[in-house]
Every structure is written in structure tokens, then in C-alpha cells.
Amino acid sequence: MTGQRLIFKLAISAEAYLAVYKGHAKKISTRATDGRRVEFSADKVRKFLTHDGIYGVFEMEITAEQKFLSIRRLR
Fold first, then answer.
1. How far apart are CA 72 and CA 45, in angstroms?
2. Is 19 in contact with 59 (CB distance < 8 Å)?
3. pTM for the full model?
């Protein structure tokens, strides 16, 4: 079974992402380029965190059952 791919932009300042470390935020919610709502655990993008935050265009692959498979930065 092939996964679905969702493309979306993120612009999260380092200060905003700090809420994840403090336990105030656990999920990120955004909209994919095709209009679908995307909600996922904030730890999925931790590896993209820089001193400035998390910025860029990302591609997430999910199963037909909406389970996370992978995420990568496109630009």
C-alpha cells in the first residue's frame, strides 16, 4: 500500500517552539498545499530546529490510515 504525501510550509520561531520543551504544546497544526488540515506531534520536526526556529517547505508521508511514515524538508 502506498503512502500519501502532504506538502506544507512551516514558519515557527524558536520562541514558539520553546513551548514544546516547556510542555505547553505537543502538536503542530497547519494546512497542506492541497487544503487538507495536517496535525502532528511537534517532535516530528525537532530535527529541523535551528537557532531561528523551523522554517521551510516540508513533505510528510503518511499511510492510508493517516499514520506517520516520514518527513523531509524540500526547501
1. 9
2. no
3. 0.87
**Cα–Cα distance for residue pair 71/46, rounded to 1 Å:** 11
Yes or no: say if 73 and 48 are a contact pair by the CB < 8 Å rule. Answer: yes
Q: How far is CA 68 from CA 16, 22, 53, 57, 60, in A?
A: 23, 24, 22, 17, 8
The number of angstroms, rounded, from the C-alpha of 29 to the middle of its chain's C-alpha atoms is 8
Separation between Cα atoms, residue 22 and residue 5, nearest integer Å: 30
Q: Read off the amino acid at residue 65.
A: E
Full set of structural domains in the chain with CATH: 4-73 (2.40.50)
Q: What is the pLDDT of residues 28-56, one digit of tens each?
A: 999 999 999 999 999 899 899 999 999 99
- Grade residue 2 by pLDDT with cuts at 50, 70 and 90: low
